[in-house]
Amino acid sequence: MYHQMKMMMYGVRDDERPFIEQWQEQNHIDVQLTDQLLTEETVDQARGYDGIVAFQQLSYSNRMLQRMTEIGIYNLSLRNVGVDNIDLKQVAKLGIKLTNVPVYSPEAIAEFTVTQLMQLLRRTKEYTQKFEKHDFRWAPQISKELNQQTVGVIGTGHIGQCAIRIFQGFGAKVIAYDKFHNPELERQGLYVDTLDELYCQATVITLHIPLFPSTQHMIDATAIAKMNPGVIILNAARGQLIDEQALIDGLDRGIIGGAALDVMEDEIKVFNRNLGDQKIDYPEFNNLFSRDNVLISPHTAFYTDVAVRNMVEVSLNNNRQLIETGTADNLISTD
Ligand code: NAD
């Protein structure tokens, strides 16, 4: 008998629904939606489906993965890039095929990063606080100009390259560090050979590298001690790249002049929740959030119409490809 392909999609937000409906209409495939996250408790809802599509900051537990295979599902497609919240060894051991969306809109993250830098340079947080009290004087919040900055870009992949183009458009001097050099940026002579050189020259540092054991806490007290006094640090990559206590000490000592954090070490405690008046049990967050020269955003750099459409369409295409062929263009290697 002909088997009609069926997919189960977890963690669905309302803003994704129009793009999902459009894809369903074009592909004539049944996609069951739930706003629940993919956990050991919810995975059984996918029984009878051919594949699962998911997106969440919460870790995908090994027990959930185990259960997935017990109910006969081996196709898992993530709607985002990062696979740091899933145990790839377990994925390989269980024979699960995993895909991601490697690129959905690098421009979204790059534009957000530059926006945050502009806000820090123009001290908008302080102005907003003053204006809310109907204090419309401009002094003493004198600002800095982006065209006067030396921006050190760490990681020149998809997002880093977009960010570089935008920074250059503003007339900033850009220097870059990456383990692998992009030929076009190399031709422009942007690369420095060591992180120490970048720390020594940059007045702004922006992170666009993945989180690996080797990059965890790369911005620590030792790194910060090498930076220019007053440096601004931007992180829209991964929270654990920065040792938050070292960042706080750097801000206290004036080595760091400001920071914009779209990601944080323990963000799962705070981001994507409506906490109302609840006490926040995250001392570093509370400390950083209270500062005039620190901007925190809840992992929203990616969140644009273009990015969401691509995350939905590419992940559904990936899942369909897995179900139909047993492999996919965006298959994650678990070697
Ligand atoms: P990418 O893979 O295109 O680029 C990453 C770059 O980092 C590569 O050029 C690589 O050579 C370089 N790199 C890796 N390890 C390095 C190291 N130890 N030292 C120096 N360079 C190193 O990735 P991308 O699409 O540009 O994304 C970058 C990061 O942004 C992602 O890993 C992810 O953590 C983060 N991200 C955040 C959001 C958000 O909403 N805030 C959204 C998407 C991605």
TrEMBL record:
Residues 115-301 form the D-isomer specific 2-hydroxyacid dehydrogenase NAD-binding domain. Keywords: NAD, Oxidoreductase. Residues 12-332 form the D-isomer specific 2-hydroxyacid dehydrogenase catalytic domain. The keyword 4Fe-4S does not apply. InterPro entries: D-isomer_2_OHA_DH_cat_dom, D-isomer_DH_CS, D-isomer_DH_CS1, D-isomer_DH_NAD-bd, D-LDH-like, NAD(P)-bd_dom_sf. It comes from the Bacteria. The keyword NAD applies. One of its GO terms (molecular function) is NAD binding. PANTHER family: 2-HYDROXYACID DEHYDROGENASE HOMOLOG 1-RELATED. Belongs to the D-isomer specific 2-hydroxyacid dehydrogenase family. This is D-lactate dehydrogenase. It comes from Paucilactobacillus vaccinostercus DSM 20634.
